Amino acid sequence: MLESVKIIGICIAAGILYGVVHDQFTARICMEYFTVFHPPVFATQSPTLLAIGWGIIATWWVSAFLGILMAFAARAGTRPKLDTSSLIRPISYLLIVMAVCAALSGTVGYLLTEQGQIFPPSWVVLNLRQGMYSRFMADWCAHNASYASGFLGGVYLCFWVHRKRKLS
């Protein structure tokens, strides 16, 4: 039971760390992504503090969910069990894949908006000056890529862990 709690804890810590680092970049690309298009949870205009706060708020819950799935995949049943230390490397690889997906998606979102190939949604256009559209789209694309790759990669990782136990 304690090892399962440790697995959940390491998943939450990894997710929060990723979220805070990711948001340190995106808060500096387009702070309005956080100040205009997120609820006013923090009374600050500091990109650093916004990134820390939103990095935690936006990631702990999905990391906890995936951590529970991971603990189940690694520990449930009669097959040989995996411990927390054996999951650190695969989780680290997932974080790297997420970062690459976010960087690529953010860059593509920025460039396509600059070229007039894509446009922000109307709720953005109504609340943001035109000169910030490309920067907003970079953030929006980067965040969506992080969530998508993190969720899909996390589910894949759970299946991989379960299969690894089957082959042991």
Question: Please, could you describe this protein's structure?
Answer:
- The chain is mainly alpha-helical and 168 residues long.
- The chain has one domain (2-167).
- The chain has seven helices and no strands.
- The two termini are 21 Å apart.
- The model has no long low-confidence stretch (mean pLDDT 95).
- Count of folded domains: 1
How large is the share of residues in beta strands? under 5%
Helix content: over 70%
Point out poorly predicted stretches: none
Write down the secondary-structure element order. Answer: HHHHHHH
Oligomeric grouping of the chains: single chain
Query: Which of globular, elongated, flat, extended, rod-shaped describes the shape?
Result: elongated
Helix segment tally:
7
Mean pLDDT: 95
Biggest sheet architecture: none
- Helix/strand-derived category reads mainly alpha
Total strands: 0
Whole-Å distance between the termini?
21 Å
Radius of gyration: 18 Å
Structure keywords:
single chain; 168 residues; mainly alpha; 7 helices
Summarize this entry quickly.
The chain is built from seven helices and no strands. The protein is mainly α and 168 residues long. The protein has one domain.
